[in-house]
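Technical note accompanying the year-one report. For the benefit of new consortium partners, we illustrate the data format agreed upon in the data management plan: each record pairs a sequence with a structure-token string. No post-processing was applied to the example shown here.
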Amino acid sequence: MIKKNHSDANIRESEDYIPGRNLWGAFAAIYRQKNPDKNLDEDENFYDLFLSGKVRFGNCYLKNSIPVPLSLYECSSHQHGHFKQDCLVDQPEIWKCQNQENGIICGLPLKPLSGYMGYDNPIDNLKIQNPLTELRMRNHLAYQSFTTGEGGLFTDMVISAQNDFKGIISFQEEKKRKEFIDIFKEELKGGKSLYIGADRDIYGKIKLRFSQETELFVGKSFEERWKNSSNGKLSFSLTLLSDTIVTDDWLGTPSRLEPDLLKEWTGLKGELRLESWFSRIQPIHSFSNVHQMPREEDQALSKGSAFLYSYKPSGSEAPNLLHDKLKQLEQDGIGFRLAEGFGQIAINLPIHWKKP
């Protein structure tokens, strides 16, 4: 049960993925259990593993899937074979279904897709996946009387135990990767269960299967994605694979990733323009186990937000500078709270560059 919000309600709904911040918190708690005599405020190893950003706990989505970009649209009729298109690079002239049957155009409005898709799904055979969920009802027994009082019936929409999720824990330094594996070898081998989320006495038991092989989160290497999408133009897409916390000059949350932000992160000096975008802002809820109360909300750009940029290099710029800077940006992530899984991005996701 990864609660979508922490309000005091009788009907609760879980997130449909495992946020990196939950794994981050679970491993930090285990580290504390393994080192009860250490003062974590002065423990440099704890700081390096959990606070410095050198180790990033990525979100876990359904195995071999990523969030559907907000730029993907389909016909609102739900009929097989009707219009599906990614609208980031090639936007339709009319935002209505142009599918024809017996010479008659459908004409129904388009609507955005949601859920999760395979790494490299072709647009004409797009398969949307969603985790299996269960609806559970339970009583809350009053203390001492052991009776169900008024408002004591709860309904929980939870993630089913049948789901198989996959995520990546990334390390800036090989030394930290080896230290992490050595400290948590029992948990990483699946010999010990972890508990995450809310109500861990009844929910949240997970087991890990850890692979040390380098696996690409979006299926294709950066070089393949860069080559297949360039088409002789200096244009590129940037898609958020996780919620991303960024701020503007007034410490507010921008509704899009402005070119000035990218130039600040990459050091590019040329002319960078935002050509099109599909984005959404949403609140980030979290809970403090120490204080037993919700934390203050953060605002973030939603996972699936997609942006298309064009770039004109400056005269003195090295030929491969844009390629190198974007590759590094994808590895590093963007924004704040990177250690908790925020700020994962993909450059030139194949779905944006494939026509139906």
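Partners are asked to follow this layout when depositing records. The mean pLDDT is 80.
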